[in-house]
Design goal:
Cofactor: heme b
CATH architecture: Beta Barrel
Organism: Streptomyces durmitorensis
Helix content: under 10%
Bound molecules: protoporphyrin IX containing FE
Strand order of the largest sheet: 1-2-3-4-5-6-7-8-9-10
CATH superfamily: Calycin beta-barrel core domain
Largest sheet: 10 strands, antiparallel, barrel
Order of helices and strands: EEEEEEEEEE
Enzyme class: isomerase
Radius of gyration: 17 Å
Distance between the termini: 39 Å
Shape: globular
EC number: 5.99.-.-
InterPro entries: Calycin, Nb(III)_bact/plant, Nitrobindin, THAP4-like_heme-bd
Number of helices: 0
Strand content: over 45%
């Protein structure tokens, strides 16, 4: 008889005041824990038109000094109705002393980013130190991400992109609210 493994005994935590106790190195990013929903706008000089999107973002932890990160976006039409699935990515934010962040982020478009940066005072600034691409992925040379969160559950996100022969410049801006 097949004997399935028991349920995972260490579920992720999504709130700083719930089990498991967050690792002390997570202190500068505790305000990110949870699930966020919001909308954003995007542009890039190679695209025919700007676009509007919605997004769900989740940060969780298992008591060790890293965050699990997952983001899923979908495009919206002019009436804000869902148009089609868009970018998604997931990864790990490894927290270091003094709020230093080492992030690994992968996308189904064949891009894997290693980003490094700093978390302090409710904002996190990450810049790629390396980008790896699968053989058919588009050329992405660098990204810069800025996350800013407030105590009342608001998160802003700005994303700059150096890709497909274009210099580093604005690709996305979004405003999200914590929903869980
Ligand atoms: C919320 C997240 C994002 C959304 C909603 C989004 C949306 C879009 C859209 C709508 C396009 C036009 C092509 C298409 O319709 O699929 C596009 C192109 C592109 N995006 Fe994003 N994107 C997101 C995140 C990212 C990230 C994280 C990267 C890179 C690390 C990226 C890199 C690119 C590149 C390289 C192109 C192609 C440009 C071209 O070939 O002209 N995007 N994005």
């Amino acid at each position: 008889m097949f004997d399935p493994a028991p349920e995972h005994p260490y579920p992720d935590g999504h709130r700083p005041d719930e089990a498991p106790a967050p690792h002390p190195l997570l202190a500068p990013v505790l305000g990110l824990l949870g699930t966020w929903h919001g909308r954003g706008q995007g542009e890039y000089p190679t695209l025919d038109a700007d676009f509007t999107y919605a997004q769900e973002v989740t940060f969780s932890h298992d008591g060790r000094p890293f965050l699990r990160y997952e983001a899923r976006a979908w495009l919206l039409d002019a009436d804000e109705a869902p148009l089609r699935p868009s970018a998604r990515e997931s990864g790990w934010w490894r927290m270091q002393p003094e709020g230093r962040v080492e992030a690994l982020i992968t996308q189904p478009t064949g891009i894997a980013e290693i980003a490094v940066g700093q978390a302090a005072g409710g904002s996190i600034d990450l810049s790629t130190s390396e980008v790896a691409r699968t053989p058919t992925a588009k050329e992405v040379k660098a990204t810069r991400r800025r996350y800013t969160f407030t105590d009342d559950g608001q998160l802003t996100f700005v994303h700059d992109l150096e890709a497909v022969g274009q210099p580093l410049q604005h690709h996305l801006s979004a405003l999200l609210r914590r929903t869980a």
